């Protein structure tokens, strides 16, 4: 990986940046009935994404293993050359993962280009390496880090210290959305740049507490429909005004190993 894009490098089986997880997150197939998958880097937990146009380097982006964006989904061709197959982007299976001008050297970027039967650089083999990679990704994704480095300098109107909630897998933080009634988003977390839209505070007390917008104690994190058995496993989290009778507005932040 160079500059946030995927590139060739001398083989090193001990380098986690050279390990890729073929993750089949959703049951979606291409026009040839081939199953889709994402290619997720073991070191960064980021996925290969289709570039804006053919000929540009393949970028790496934050990966959502629960609901991946279609721009990070790929398929394999049915035909093979001695076990090697073409890796195609789901959005246009005529575009193939390759290198420019058949160049194979350290630092050569991967990109998308139309299929060319004469180019051996458009054929790949995906082989198993470590069965624990998926468990590692699953363990990281639902884990959040309470980052309170700004707490000494940023406080709300009641004097409570602010903090960010940063996802362990993606490095992105929970961000206020469009306001009450809307779901929250994930924003880029830069520890060297203060973005107040990423900051929250807890109510006083112990156990389950409110998580509030740091500069408006009346607006809280709210798990929509989490009290319904139909939505409990995938409730959306958004912002709402305080409702003292709702347990969906109370959270318990605790340490994990």
UniProtKB/TrEMBL annotation:
It comes from the Eukaryota. InterPro entries: Ricin_B-like_lectin_EULS3-like, Ricin_B-like_lectins. Signal peptide: none annotated. This is Ricin B lectin domain-containing protein. It comes from Carex littledalei. The lineage of its organism: Eukaryota, Viridiplantae, Streptophyta, Embryophyta, Tracheophyta.
